[in-house]
Structure formats: C-alpha cells, structure tokens
Amino acid sequence: MVGCLRSKSKRSKPSGFIFSGKKDMSAHIQLPFATSAEAPAARQVHLVAADDATTVSALLGDHAGFLTGQGFKPEDGAFTLIPSGESVGAALLCVSRDRSHDPMAFGLLGTKLLAGDWVPVLHGLEESARESAILGFCMGAYSYRVGERKAGKARMVVPDDAAKLVALAKANWLGRDLINMPANLLGPQDLANAASKALSHRGATTTVISGDELMASYPCLAQVGEGSERKPAVVVARWKAREGAPRVSLIGKGVCFDTGGYDLKPPAGMLRMKKDMGGAALMLALMCAAIDARLDVDLELRLGCVENSVSGHAMRPGDVLQTRSGLTVEIGNTDAEGRLVLCDLITEAAETKPDYILDAATLTGAARVALGPDLPALFTNDDQWGSVFLESGKKTADALWRMPLWHGYDAWLDSKVADLGNITSRPMAGAITAALYLQRFVPEGQKWAHLDTYAWNDATSPGRPEGGETLGLRGLFEMLTALNKNT
C-alpha cells in the first residue's frame, strides 16, 4: 500500500473569529441592555406574583378569556404576550414569590420576548426581583457560535445604578464564551492571553509566565503540559482595592483540552473536554466582575493553562514528579492531572500569605456522581468561611454544597516511592480524596476553599442554554461582597 507524506502545518483559526488572542474578549461583549434614555418607547413586561390572579386578570383585560381558553393559567413560569390592536403591547410572566430572587425564574424572557425594548414592571414582588429578572433575561438570551455572535433582537432597560448587575452579566457571558470555545481555537497560550487582556483592560497588573521560567516555578504543572505541542502558561494577576481590604487569592484549573494522557479517555468521555478549563473561566469571570463592580477586596489570580495530551514527552503512569512545595508525587493515573496543575499554584499563592485562598476546577467525576451537574461541591478548612459560602449561595439562588475533608481517607494517598500519589487505589470518595490531595499543599493556618464544578449545562433550561456555564459565579460574587462583614 502506497502511503503519502503529509506536510506539517500550523492550525489556523477561522477568519472573523470572535477572539484572535490580541484583544479583550469582554470589551467586545454587547449585552442586550438599554438605558431608559435609549429606549423611551420600551414596552412593559409585567412580572406578577403567581398567586395574584386578580392582578393577572386585570393586566390581561379583555384578552383574559381568550388567553385562558388557550391554556394560560396564572402559575409559576406562565408567560404570555398581551395584544394591543394588531400588535403586541406588553408581556406578562408569573413568578412564585419564593423564587423571585432567582434569575432562572425569569430566564425564559431571554427567548420569549419579541424584538424591541422592554422594561420590567413588578406586581406583588420585592424590588430585588427587578435585578433578578434583568439578569435572568440576559442569561437566557445568551448564544454562542464560532464567528460573530448572532445579536439578539430584544433588549431590557436597566436602572442607572446597575453596575453590579452589568458586571455579573458580562462576566457570565465571558466565562461561557471561553468554555464554549473549541479547543483548536483556545489553547493554553490563547487562554492566558484572553485572561491577561481582560484583566489589564480593567487596571489589574498581569504577567504571563511560560518556557523555562514556568518549568522552574511550577515544575508539576509544567509536566502536565509537556505532552502537548501547545506549551503551558500561567497567568498571575493582581488588583488592589484599598489598604487593609481582605486579600483573596483565586486559582483556576485551565486544562484547555484533556485527552486523559496515557490513561486515555474513551471517545464519549473526551467529547466535552474543551470545558476542562471551566475552573479558570469561572475564576477569571469572578475577578472581572469584582473589579467592574469595585468590590472592596484585594484580589490575586493564578490560572494554570495547559493541555493534557499524549506524546513521547507526556508524563506516564508510574512517573514521580517534583512540585513547587518540594513534595514528590507518584502518577497513578495521568487523567488525574487537574490536581497536579493546582498544587503548584496553591503553594505559590500561600507564599504571599493572603487572608483566603479559593481554587476552582472541573476536577472529579465523583463530585458529579454525588451531586449531579448543577451543584458544585465545596470543600473548606474554615467553618466560618464555609458558612459565608453557603449563605451567599442561598441568597443568590446559586447554591453550593459543602462536602467533608474526611481525614480518615488521608492515608489512601500514600505512595511507596514518593511523598504522595495523585490518586488512591480505592474506587470510592474520589472528590474527597482529590480535595485532600490539594490540602497537602495548604500551610497550617491558611484559610482555603476548593470548588469542584461541572461548568456545563447538559440541556437548555430557562436562563441556562446548553453549553458552558459559570456555575457558582453569583454566589461567589456575593461571598466576596460579604467578606468585609466577616473579617
């Protein structure tokens, strides 16, 4: 059989692609918002307590009988357009009072409202429901497509004092864009550049580390990326709010694609692995939102941007890797690479002695088996801080679930040839043992939390289009807001 030689060529990116690596992605995000001055003829979308049938009937007016005959009932999630002559004059959405703080209760507005400008009008709901409705509309209106984003036709009028709302909405879209981006278009250096541009644009000081400097500073992380032609990079960014503000160090796992390495994933398990940088996208989105909203907290960010591939240079099962901390790690499975990326970053973050360290990663399938796709697992060594996380998640309808750092499983990480292994030999408690691995790199007395997230919507639901998702963003933002009250 006669073979043919295939010349090597660099991968190219589609022309007109939304991200070239040389601009701030977030600066080009156009949210479907308008000010009252920009939308003087905005139609009203009535947001009504679902148990207030009298108000619903009054708003529907002469059309109440017809719409009821068409199956409309005043219950949670019920939506209808209200005719005016031969066109649509308004819209109505019923929402349960106990869900009015949840943007997802309003998420279907993003796909149901017709083209044009809309202003929310509350009936029987607390004033805070206005922001929830606007954010839910924006999250529901999001779409992703390689190339130019298809602009939505409906816009929502936002209040003049909506800095926090706009910050969260833009951060959500930025995080989703990064997670949704195909891996051939977002390699480690691309992700590092995207983060650097977004944060520099906001006034943060940023550094992108690669090459020999990366190998010297983050030896364990560097080995994860050695198997790929697209070499690893680390982003370090700092933003200072004021002297004496709480200092929080954020860390994100940025594995731009995860083949599993020599412990290769099956095809079905590899299909969505462009999302394995979801922790980095979440932490970047959180820092961008905090800066845009001018939260009173000093922030550092470290993103480990790598690709876990197979080659003659890739790490192998049985290898022993050096870490920044000095601990050695035996590789029991090359598909447990996320913790190898994070451990060097945690070590460096702790060297700066922040008040808090928070890392986020799409780390284990075990967390998803335990909690499903929508509920990130929270581990922390500080009960008071853990309570702040949980209360913040409850307040924003963006829940986390605290899991135990059960030290009875610590010995499962023991290795005969190194200080510890990157996996255990037992097919149980995978999320807990992964967190215990990370805790080995946290100094005594350092407050630390770890978020094991999914970063993806498996199917479209109101406010949550199928694809990348910044699970926990609203809750984490509220946690940062609350820190000054708890320090």
TrEMBL record:
Kindly state a single biological-process term from the GO annotations of this entry.
Answer: proteolysis
Entry superkingdom = Bacteria
Would the keyword Nucleotide-binding be found if you checked this record's keyword annotation? no
Tell me a GO cellular component.
Answer: cytoplasm
Q: Kindly indicate whether the keyword Manganese belongs to this entry.
A: yes
InterPro entries named in the record: Leucine_aapep/pepB (IPR011356), Macro_dom-like (IPR043472), Peptidase_M17_C (IPR000819)
Keywords attached to this Swiss-Prot or TrEMBL record, sorted alphabetically, are:
Aminopeptidase, Hydrolase, Manganese, Protease
Please list which residues make up the signal peptide: none
What's a Pfam family this protein contains? Peptidase_M17
Q: Which residues cross the membrane?
A: none
GO MF term set:
manganese ion binding; metalloaminopeptidase activity
Give residue ranges for domain Cytosol aminopeptidase.
333-340
**Family to which this protein belongs:** Belongs to the peptidase M17 family.
Query: Which PANTHER family has this protein been placed in?
Result: LEUCINE AMINOPEPTIDASE-RELATED, PEPTIDASE B
Q: What is this protein called?
A: Leucine aminopeptidase
Organism from which the protein derives? Gluconobacter morbifer G707
